[in-house]
Write a structure and sequence with these properties.
7 strands; seven-stranded parallel beta sheet; alpha/beta; 6 helices; 39% helix; single chain
């Protein structure tokens, strides 16, 4: 096992869980975070076969809990901070918008990743890789929006784009790079069974892009490796 470490949020299912599997397979030390570890059967099963896997309870909307976990891991070096946790929220219909639901989507998808970065910047700065990665969506691209709707999800992912772009500038003097990865339309609970990409293929593609991510600081990277227009 190498001495590199990755912290992954939303690690109990879908893309997050597959990232855990992929990093373990490559010999990384994995710090997996999810809201309810006691109910994360697949994650617990992975830990039984890989005792170095660490699992922590973390609700990314609970800023105090994020701070507490950072304090608990204050002496750790975290090479990659991988902010994966996200939600779509309810269908947003013009004229019938649920403001509380919109705030929740923004909190999870845009605000939490910045709070996570702010709390773990020292651990990332102390590492060798020094990389912050946010899982975004092509639906956050204003240039790509040709179908309208999805106000909550689109706006939250567009906001995340700005968060990561600013991080890539503000943290550059500390040697930290920040990028957004688009996983594609993936067959998860969020993407649905009709999605075009399997979880395994999505994560395999993103794992390859992580190898060159530092050289692409501030980029919005599609699953095929191309840059997505903002």
């Amino acid at each position: 096992m190498n001495n590199r470490a990755v912290l992954i949020t939303g690690a109990n299912r879908g893309i997050g869980l597959q990232f855990v599997r992929a990093f373990i397979a490559e010999g990384w030390q994995v710090i997996a975070c999810c809201r309810h570890p006691d109910h994360a059967a697949d994650l617990i099963a992975l830990q039984e076969d890989n005792p170095t896997l660490e699992i922590y309870a973390l609700d990314v909307t609970n800023h105090a809990q994020i701070s507490q976990l950072s304090a608990q891991l204050k002496n750790r070096k975290i090479d990659i901070l991988l902010s994966n946790a996200g939600i779509t929220g309810p269908k947003a219909i013009f004229g019938h918008l649920d403001m509380a639901a919109w705030r929740e989507v923004l909190e999870v998808n845009a605000i939490a990743p910045l709070i996570l970065a702010q709390n773990f910047v020292e651990q990332v700065a102390a590492s060798e890789t020094k990389l912050m990665v946010m899982i975004g969506s092509k639906m956050g691209s204003i240039d790509d929006n040709s179908s309208g709707g999805a106000y909550f999800y689109r706006s939250s992912k567009s906001a995340l784009n700005q968060v990561v772009k600013s991080l890539s500038i503000d943290l550059a003097d500390r040697g930290i790079a920040a990028v957004i990865l688009n996983p594609g339309w993936v067959q998860t609970d969020m993407g649905g069974i009709n999605a075009s990409t399997t979880v395994k293929d999505s994560v395999a593609g993103m794992m390859q892009h992580l190898k060159t991510a530092r050289a692409r600081n501030g980029a919005f990277i599609d699953l095929d490796g191309t840059v997505i227009p903002w």
